[in-house]
Design brief:
By secondary structure, the chain is mainly alpha-helical. Helix content is about 50%, strand content about 10%. Among the domains are: about 80 residues, no CATH class; about 190 residues, CBS-domain (Roll), CATH 3.10.580.10. Bound molecules: adenosine-5'-triphosphate. Adenosine-5'-triphosphate binds next to strand 6, strand 16 and strand 22.
Length: about 850
Amino acid sequence: MSFSVLHDNDQQNENNIAVSQIEEDTDHVTLRNQFNRDDGLRRRSVRSSLSSGGVKSASPADDSLFAVQDDDSFSVFAKGRDYEPIFITHQYTEQEKETLGSYESCDYLPSHSHIYKHWIKRQMISNIETDRWVMMGLIGFTVGLLGFVLHQLIERISSLKWSTTKKFLDDGQVAVAWMFCSAYSMAFAIFAAVVIVFWRPSAGGSGLPEVTGFLNGTQVKKIFSVKTLTAKFLSCVSAIGCGMPIGPEGPMIHMGAIVGAGLSQGTSVTLNLKLPFFERFRNPEDRRNFISAGVAAGVSAAFGAPVGGLLFCMEEVSSFWSNTLSWQIFFCCIIATSTSDLFNSSFESFERVGTFGGFRTSRYILFNVYDAVDINILMFIPSVILGVIGGLLGSLFTILNLKLVMSSFSVFLPMAFKCIPYTCIPSDTNSISDFCVNDTANKYDSHLREAEESFHTCEEGTQYTEGTTLFNNGTYNELALLLFSSKDEAMKNLYLRNSHRMFNYGPLFVGLIIYFFMVIWSAGTSVAAGILVPMLVIGALYGRILGLVIVDMFGIHLGESYWSWMDPGAFALIGSASFFSGVARLAPAITSIMMELTNDLKVLLPVMSAVVVAKWVGDYLTHPFFHALLELKCIPFLNQQPNVRIKKQNVKLELFTASDIMAFPVVTLNLVEHVPNLAQKLLDHTHNGFPVLKESPSGDLVFCGLITRSELLVILENKDVLKPGPLEPLEDRDLDIAPIGYDAMLRGPVEREQMTKKFLQQFVDRDSFYRDHYIDLTAYMNQSAMSVPCRFSLHRAYTLLTALGLRHLTVVDECNQVKGIITRKDLMGFHMVETLGHIMQTRPY
Ligand code: ATP
């Protein structure tokens, strides 16, 4: 559909505009040869003309239009329909832009060179697909086992703390109990922080942004090493075991990714290990796929949710996906879940030994819901309300968390001090819990008494969890039940069905506030921490509050099945899903995880509606939490779809060309390159990719391939391949033998960064032995390096780069001569805003 912008009243009159159509889906019109006045005046006249011309756009106001002109043309842009969240979570500073630029990209596809083809031929003997399935199974098993050990250790650290505290409490030594509890927690929390801060900072946090960034194509250093795995494991076990309000799922995702990388590559620099198995997988593409499998297995093992794990990886973490990969990763998830479930069923609890092979779910993070309620159409009303609350609170959570992280990043503190504020969390949580449990005369209890529900005698048959028996015989404190027990137990209690009065408003509100801020605080710490399960607790708390409100407003119609949907436990579950969605915005993954966690399919539709509403509300307000973290950590990330906004307008990249964004002039290499020349170029430029040129029959130098810095350094290290000149480029028939093994190329240069300069200098020196040496790059360059013509659409160039995982895209003219180069850095949002903004000010397009 098109609509009239302005009628062409008078072609001769230079104050009027001739062209008058705006295609609704392009929002753009170019008006030629109509204006001679100064810029400001022209803009005003265009705007008023457009308004008075009866634009039928949803936003015909002046600000929704802007115009750009040069001597002979004039372009008007109407406001795009995509929206940007109200609260922009992060704007890059100049320093942060530099940090973004300092990251290197990684190759997704192996370089398609002669030596690579030679290597592939040798690998064909084994059945690669079978090996791939075997590797997926192996990763799933290892991650499942890791999840099991992690849970068991957390359980033991936690049990020891509470059993000892209980002993002191039973002896009436309340002060000693408090001191022991706090000191025990502090010791573990300090250890959890020290391991990260002093030994392995790359293991801090959940690791999700780093893994997501890597799978998107950014090289994040030290995230896949054995040391990182060890540090993450120790920090996570200690932090959660001592009672910090965090969960193991984020770290499990990172640890799963490390297992995927380590097992599939069979190499470890730390352990100085290189196994003679599965060598075929030592290429960037397979490595990335196995890392994705590790991520999905991590979620599966943590939640006991194989489908959720697969969807989580597909929706949030992985940027490259295929049908075959779905099947293989699904298999990996099944193995991971089965392994952790099988082993956990054998060690049911600290005291008891379970049944091997029983697949009992009691050791999962969560549990099966019993007594599921029937749903009713009226249930959708509170579900949508919960969705709105989830979106609002999720955005608030994101904003506050980022503010906290930014403040601790911006203030320079000596390392030692960084640990201190973080260690306060478990002791604070414990203090609060102790306070609630032991000091019965304090204000919490009086508050609860006022509510006539301060201490409940457990009704016969009421299902409540073991944590409650720690205190008063047969009685429990509601707030302590929420804070004192583990997150899993708190959730079990919150999700309980037919337990309307188990928690009252006071404890639920207090618990919500404490949890909300404690989780924000914990997520900003250095320790290896995840916030997925704590997020579920927060949602369950406000979900239960709403459930209670509904019960109080409309009464409980016990025995009437029509009203049985009014169950605060069911709303707690819907609340959890809504908050998870409000923070992470992963609709299918969250729904699936919630269903697999609780086995309560009856509430599927209300959960889905709450999840979708929370996502809409959240998207309207802020970016998703994990993406905001990527921005905050300055890890370059390219979305599948470009979103460039200038002056609050969406810029249509189809209107720009590859040449608009490309970098030039390009540092290129000749097919047969003079060695000192090559070394000098590597010394002078920091680029990681160089287009290779060969002489065409007409004598021009044209694009024929691309070679990376790392490959060039490996070549220079193998000095045998450097030959005294002059040298003619090899023909295809001469390429039967690989001069350097592809393994060597993958391993990269031996020279460390600081040594590279010295290493290269030996080729450049005047008296160098290699002064008259040449290198023929025919066998080493990527023969399938992509190039696009200058006029190629910028939007499509972006899609090409992101969809194929390219690192460099060469821009050529009609004669195949190199004109420019595009890398991921050129397509970063802020860079495109700067470059395209400048173009829009200076010329039409
Ligand atoms: P990577 O991010 O893969 O390590 P790189 O180091 O080769 O890539 P970037 O750091 O991404 O390159 O690029 C920085 C800038 O240099 C970008 O604008 C890019 O287009 C440009 N650039 C990259 N390679 C060349 C080259 N060979 N000649 C000239 N400019 C280049």
